[in-house]
Amino acid sequence: MTFGVIAIWVVALGALAMCLRRSPSVARRAVQDATGGLGRVLPVMLMALPMAAFVAELIPAGWAETWLGPESGVGGIVLASLAGGLMPGGPFVAFPLVLGFLKAGAGPSQMVALISGWAILGLHRTLAWELPILGGRFILLRLAASFSLPLLAGLAAEAMLPLFPGVAAR
User: Hey, CA dihedral for 114, 116, 118, 120, is it positive or negative?
Assistant: First the structure.
């Protein structure tokens, strides 16, 4: 169990204790809400994690390592940034795909850029939500202002890799 998982458990159990302190009915509602959320998320995760393993096996040998591997450098970070911006789907698609790419030899800095591109640029969200609601001029401003952020995140991750030993050996 990782530190992150332990921290989430500690926070969750602390929140449950606070709900119990407030009243048993509040705690009961919170547990019911959590159970309902878990019921919606668990089936997706049960398919998403194996999907990542399948995708990792389907990626042609050496492809992820050549184009997105640690040695791909700035070119791989740029490619990952653009691919992330074009990658459709929510977190249950994006994160397992990144896991699959990592297992297939992609570099951690490149995957930081990919996730950042997905989160910041997100063409699928831009077209489906931002364009109809906020309009084209706002989208152009937002994209122009944030286009370089995934690249900068990948470069920053590359610079910080020595501070995180073992990240590349996932």
Answer: negative
**Structural domain that includes position 94:** 59-163
Question: Does any domain span residue 128?
Answer: yes
Tokens of 45: 């995760």
DSSP H helical ranges for 2-127: 3-22, 24-58, 63-68, 73-86, 91-103, 108-120, 123-125
Position 129 in a domain:
yes
Residues 6+ apart with CB under 8 A from 105: 62, 64, 65, 68, 69
Per-residue pLDDT tens over the stretch 7-46: 999 999 999 999 999 999 999 999 999 999 889 888 888 8
Count of CB atoms within 10 A of residue 96's CB? 23
Q: Is residue 52 part of a domain?
A: no
User: In terms of domains, do 80 and 19 share one?
Assistant: no
